[in-house]
Amino acid sequence: MSTAFLVIEGIGLVLLSLYLAYSLCALVAQPRRWPLRRAPLHFTFVIPALNEAAVIGPTLRNLRSAAPGARLVVIDDGSDDETAEVVGDLARADPGILLLRRRPPHARTGKGEALNWGVAQLLRQGGLAQAPLAEQVLVVFDADGRMDDRLLDEAARVFADPDVMAAQARIRVRQSGVESRGWRGLLGRLLLLQQDLEFYIVRHIQLLRQRVWTVGLGGNGQFMRLSYLAERLAGGQAPWPPVLLEDFASGLEVRLAHPRHRLVFLESGVTQQGLTDVRRFVRQRTRWTHGNLQCAPHLPRIWRTPMALGARLDLTYFLAQPWLNLLTLGLLVYYPARALSRLLTGEVNWALTAALSVPGLLLPLAWVFLYSRENRLGLRRAAFAAAGLPVYTLIMMLSVPLAFRNFLRGEHGWVKTARHAEA
């Protein structure tokens, strides 16, 4: 039995070392300096929308203000609210807004399929700018998104590199939407703050991944060169694979399609609503982890496709995340039980315990400190962020076994995240 304990603790030590090493590298990662030269690009925003009447109007008005010359395309994915009517009213006043409608039984089959269908329609019907496809960039945008005014200028400089096929904007979470009081309101505010803190950490990870051109694509603020999309569709291949994490999978497809393809990160960003309900939050994260599990078939291709070793290791690491998280969850149960057993028998090695615990505690506090400094949080709110981090991590880890259960059962259905109107 002692040998089994040693093996388990050895695995835990390896995982902790890997986590600390990767996090420290991400902590010090710096943005890449791009040339000032701007490519003459034409941007088309594509917004998949399912029952988004509460938010789609303000989003289109924000995009028109921030991107006066861009084309705005809304893919109504079988909404049964007033989404189509809201977009139609705006389109009549603005010829740069286009509404595409999917109807049952073909609608509501997933965001990726809506995007594949919508882009194919645009290429077929000529709903794009009159310019070469290589000079056009498609931007996937969420129905609740708000764009930084500097984002398109940065994208134009990044896409001046012909090898850049896709880019991901930085994401922030708006601190709004909490209406309840008492402990529910407190938990809602904690979730909002922690989601924004999480995306701050993701920003540093993206900066690190950019060194090997493997930046992860997200569903909001996802830029893709239209010539790449047209080539994929012409070859009978879906740019967004039919998985629950279609954005992550689309980035893998870009990187694996050609050794020269680059995925980059944009410092200018977009903001979006956060989730304030624990049940909805766990359901969303379950879908994300489930979608990652569905991407496992990409692993052999990663090691067959010519690319730098660092890129292969990075992509493999992110494909392994669900399994690493499941292992971590088991260790979170094992270590407290083992520590209690040793405490009762007087076998605690306090020096080793401190050596393992202190770095694991200091690193999260370093993230909170940097996040608080960037966002100019007061001491009280920074303390709230630090105290809430373990609670948030525990809630997030609840999604891991649920995702494995759904994946193993073959339950690949999805439930759309509900959004709320904002003042």
Describe this structure in words.
Helix content is 56%, strand content 13%. Helix 1 runs parallel beside helix 13 and helix 10 runs antiparallel to helix 11. It is α/β, with parallel strands linked by helices and 423 residues long. It has an eight-stranded mixed sheet with strand order 3-2-1-4-7-6-8-5, sandwiched between helices. The model has no long low-confidence stretch (mean pLDDT 91). It is built from 15 helices and eight strands.
Q: What are its keywords?
A:
alpha/beta, 56% helix, 13% strand
Q: Briefly, what is this?
A:
The chain is an alpha/beta fold and about 425 residues long.
Tell me the overall shape: globular
Total strands: 8
Order of helices and strands: HEHEHEHEEHEHEHHEHHHHHHH
Distance between the amino and carboxyl termini: 60 Å
Strand proportion: 5-15%
- The total of helices stands at 15
For the CA atoms, what is the radius of gyration? 22 Å
**Biggest sheet strand line-up:** 3-2-1-4-7-6-8-5
Fraction of residues in H or I helices: 55-70%
**Backbone structural class:** alpha/beta
Major pleated sheet: 8 strands, mixed
Averaged pLDDT: 91
